[in-house]
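Board notes (copied after class):
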Amino acid sequence: MPNSKIGGNNMSKAVTDATFASETDEGLVLVDFWATWCGPCRMQAPILDQLAASHDEDELKIVKMDVDENPETPAQFGVMSIPTLLLKKDGEVVDKVIGVHTKDQLEQLIASHL
């Protein structure tokens, strides 16, 4: 069966309070803070999947963190509403956006930090 994925081999990965630092301290990483009950988060998810499909993981890594199951990290980064997307480059926060964003908006955000 042919691979239907277009672009990269990137997939969003779930991270926890315990794994956050090790998963986000190298390269360019987009962190999606979300929750299962969050409607806008469910709207953002397929957009992030499209973004992941169009970038190789060595260029952009996308991780997701459930804020209900992992309260420490969102508190550390001042996440007050979701979805919140945090962009880290080599362990440093370089951007933070709140709310649902289009793929084009996110591509522009990422391009400014490549």
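Comment from the instructor: DSSP finds four helices and five strands in the chain. The domain at 13-111 is CATH 3.40.30.10 (Glutaredoxin).
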